[in-house]
């Protein structure tokens, strides 16, 4: 029998999120049922709930930073047992057979991965995410949360953690490399922690100096305000890598001018409108202008293990469900330190 569980859903692009009940499928042979303890609030949840990336399929329960414990396992599940501490990120399934899936890039499944929410599952039903009390996920898309990371601090790793870890690894952040992180929000604060743990010299480029103390505590060595034009003069040509986590438009030519020869600016922020830049900004200096989308399942587990080894969790502000709409406004006002996490017991 499918079970009905408490959740919070967006019902239109303009209404606040409201209490909702969501049906979870029966536990199949390869399925893991998870009692969700905490769900992070990612800016992508807001983009989706408000149909900023195209029309959402309402009602939709968002949330793709899920941490909890295993409540039940199917008869063929081998990797998990009841009581295990686990997480789920942005995907809950993929074909498993195409060249991208077999290379560990399930996020680029040629048949399209099944998103944790606002997607359609293999059973033909709409998928609903983490702002709910439980979820049923095929075992290949369930991650193990290592001991040493509390579940609330682990939840945001499932999106903000992997989305920043993957490009930092790919572009070689490490000793001797100068890495700038643009935007000190949910993704940005994880980028700072992870890049510092990898051994890079980290600079935060924030709109103001309001969060400077935090940035330095999180692992940055330098902190500059992008509202101050002298920042762009002082830092010209200085970075090997810039990770842009900003959810809005930037003056990309100005940021590209901060790259050293052969430097790369990797974008993970996803503003809704097209951007523009001068081709000279990349051609001069052999610069790269790149993007990065979450990470595959194996890499997500690698990130969780890396974070446990380096004692990295997210800095969270835990809220009850009734504060979700207020939290959304605070995220939009860049007033988050540094991830809101919903205590799902309050749903
Ligand atoms: P967030 O917590 O809101 O952080 C974004 C930060 O960007 C803010 O804290 C702020 O930092 C800065 N910012 C906001 N508006 C700005 C503006 N108008 N100009 C300059 N800077 C601004 O959001 P998040 O959850 O980290 O997500 C960031 C973006 O990444 C979103 O677009 C999200 O959808 C996207 N995302 C992408 C992936 C992927 O796979 N590529 C995965 C997850 C999320 P300061 O106050 O320090 O300036
Ligand atoms: Zn996310």
TrEMBL record:
Cofactor(s) needed by this chain: Zn(2+)
Pfam families found in the cross-reference section: ADH_N (PF08240), ADH_zinc_N (PF00107)
Annotated GO MF terms: alcohol dehydrogenase (NADP+) activity; zinc ion binding
Enzyme's top EC category: oxidoreductase
Catalytic activity, EC: 1.1.1.2
Residue ranges constituting the Enoyl reductase (ER) domain according to the UniProt record: 12-342
This protein's UniProt keywords: Metal-binding, Oxidoreductase, Zinc
Top-level taxonomic group: Bacteria
SMART domains membership: PKS_ER
Catalytic activity: a primary alcohol + NADP(+) = an aldehyde + NADPH + H(+)
InterPro entries associated with the record: ADH-like_C (IPR013149), ADH-like_N (IPR013154), ADH_Zn_CS (IPR002328), CAD-like (IPR047109), ER (IPR020843), GroES-like_sf (IPR011032), NAD(P)-bd_dom_sf (IPR036291)
Assigned protein family: Belongs to the zinc-containing alcohol dehydrogenase family.
Protein name: alcohol dehydrogenase (NADP(+))
């Amino acid at each position: 029998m499918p079970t009905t569980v408490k959740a919070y859903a967006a019902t239109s692009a303009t209404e606040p999120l409201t209490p909702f009940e969501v049906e979870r499928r029966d536990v199949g042979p390869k399925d893991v049922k998870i009692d969700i303890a905490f769900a992070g609030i990612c800016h992508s949840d807001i983009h989706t709930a408000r149909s900023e990336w195209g029309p959402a399929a309402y009602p939709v329960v968002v949330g793709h930073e899920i941490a909890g414990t295993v409540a039940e396992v199917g008869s063929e599940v081998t990797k998990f047992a009841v009581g295990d501490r686990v997480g789920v990120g942005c995907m809950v399934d993929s074909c498993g057979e195409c060249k991208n899936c077999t290379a560990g890039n399930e996020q680029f499944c040629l048949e399209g991965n099944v998103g944790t929410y606002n997607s359609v599952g293999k059973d033909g039903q709409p998928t609903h995410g983490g702002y709910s009390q439980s979820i049923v996920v095929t075992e290949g898309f369930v991650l193990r949360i290592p001991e040493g990371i509390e579940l609330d601090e682990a939840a945001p790793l499932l999106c903000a953690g992997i989305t920043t870890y993957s490009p930092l690894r790919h572009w070689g952040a490490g000793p001797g490399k100068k890495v700038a992180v643009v935007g000190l929000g949910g993704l940005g604060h994880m980028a700072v922690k992870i890049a510092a743990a990898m051994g890079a010299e980290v600079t935060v480029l924030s709109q103001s100096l309001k969060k400077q103390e935090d940035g330095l505590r999180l692992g940055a060595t330098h902190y500059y305000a992008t509202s101050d034009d002298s920042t762009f003069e002082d830092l010209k040509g200085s970075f090997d890598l810039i990770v842009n986590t900003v959810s809005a438009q930037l003056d990309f030519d100005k940021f590209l001018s901060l790259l050293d020869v052969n430097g790369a600016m990797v974008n993970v922020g996803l503003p809704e409108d097209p951007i523009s830049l001068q081709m000279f900004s990349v051609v001069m200096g052999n610069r790269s202008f790149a993007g990065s989308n979450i990470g595959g399942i194996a890499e997500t587990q690698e990130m969780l293990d890396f974070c446990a080894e380096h004692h990295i969790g997210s800095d969270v502000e835990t809220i009850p469900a009734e504060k979700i709409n207020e939290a959304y406004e605070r995220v939009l006002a860049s007033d988050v330190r540094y991830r809101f996490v919903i205590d799902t017991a309050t749903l």
